[in-house]
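Sequence dictates fold. Below is an illustrative record:

_____
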Amino acid sequence: MAGMTDLHEILGALRPYVRQGAYVVVTTQTPPDIVYHARIVEDEGTTLVLDQAIADEYHLTYEGVFGWITLEAHTSLQAVGITAAVSNALARVGLSCNVLAGYYHDHLLVPLDSVEEALGVLGGLGE
């Protein structure tokens, strides 16, 4: 099933929801055999997004603790402007946002203590 490409349609169908938990981003040269939610291999090392509790258990260093917001809209990987629209809206209120694009949905990591504020901002994008 193809995802949506029209930005106006996407913004009207965002339906953001919070994945429960506290998430962190770590980097390592040799990733341990652990459960993670996202993995990105870069020249400098492997980046993992994982539960804070797992990072703490394995003594992995991280900067910041994040909430995870999933945008329910099924967007095409060819859609233009969704990342810009979302990140600009959050930036206007001073919220940082790290975007992960999955095949079906976009996912946002925002500061854990700002999740509710971010949801409010995102909820207003479709209006």
About this structure: The chain has one domain: 7-123. The domain at 7-123 is CATH 3.30.2130.10 (VC0802-like). The two ends are 26 Å apart (CA to CA).
